[in-house]
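Async update (no meeting this week)

Hi team, since we skipped the sync, here's where things stand on the single-chain job. The sequence we agreed to prioritize is pasted below, unchanged from the tracker. I ran it this morning and attached the output directly underneath so nobody has to dig for it. Comments welcome in thread, and please keep replies under the output.
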Amino acid sequence: MFFERPPSGKSDSGELAVLVHLVFPINSPLHANDAAEFKDLVTSAGGEPVAFITGHRTAPDPRHFVGSGKLDEIKQTLEATGAELVIFDHALSPSQERNLEKFLCCRVLDRTGLILDIFAQRARTHEGKLQVELAQLHHASTRLVRGWTHLERQKGGIGLRGPGETQLETDRRLIRARIQSIEKRLEKVRSQREQGRRSRTRSEVPTVALVGYTNAGKSTLFNRLTAADVYVADQLFATLDPTMRRIKLTNFGPYNLSEIILADTVGFISHLPHQLVEAFRATLEEVVNADLLLHVTDASNIDRDTHRDEVLGVLKEIGAQDVPVLEIMNKIDLMDGKLSQIDRDEEGRPRRVWLSASSDEGVGLLLSCLDELLAHNIIETTLHLAHEQFGLRAKLFKMQVVVREENIDDGSVKITIKMPTKDLLSLLKQYSLTHVM
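Output:
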């Protein structure tokens, strides 16, 4: 926002960047970042890593984040590679960014700025673009001063106020006004989503939300279940804008739940910037208000347990920790000898499904589990059907909800069925039948 980007002709792959990744003690909140994931983030943003500088510290340096020796190493690397961008795999304070840029004479980007840049590239819908811009403005509001270091910024008396102070205040007012405008527009989106949720609640259509670490295969599974054409790529944050589809579940599982609403959501990542969580709260409300969460995990990833904990942390942050969860262990096609299966808890309820969304193996098991977990208010009752009502009898058998049938001497039947209450009431109304035993 505050620096001109260099011409893109320097490299066919993207902007040349020096990456800095420090390792902190295990008990430090900065310890969890993964070096390989950091490189993937940079390439996903369109950058070309030309050097990867690592180091160990017990705590960040308050002035430059890194020590003086590492700072000199970074500067020498910049001169040797011709790079004009340094990216840190950590959150930097505004003063640390300013000090680093002043010393290195180039742009410096931290992990938050990097993720914001990726989100800005991925946003396609109007809502998505607004949410990203809101997060960028909140992030930029603390860093305005660095764009005006060439102007006087003193406060005090007559003759000590320079044009820089006036410009800074103008920028702050413009940013505050833009933030307020975006928040009002997102509030309308939130109201529209709430109306949609109330409509789905009235029609008793359950909502299922896909959540998980970025690049776990959520969109591939979404496409497999819905026959949609959501963008899929082997890169971080391939999906940013939420997508919702209504899908049929007939003939899967014992209850034949008719349909559900399936929502694909943005992927999570370690140290997800708080600005993004706040900006995407309107979208993430679909997660909070879902009847069931499908927590998709890349089962072939050696860091899957860490990724799982990161997702659970974000779910807690947005208030979705109490929503029922079914774990989806995806990408078993990348694991030697692993077959699709359902893991159940002590009460026999499904808690984990092993499958491959790309090959379709185990997807039928997932649909059966959805039917089993979401068929709320299942009723078992007996209907007394006369001969002229056998059209309903045939339909009940077709729906596979018949538990048993007893023939009566007068040609009628007593038929015991098990199905969702709302579906039963709909059938009774359709066939003008009120006699329920």
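Quick observations from my side:
The radius of gyration is 28 Å.
Residues 163-202 form the longest helix (40 residues).
Reply here if anything looks off.
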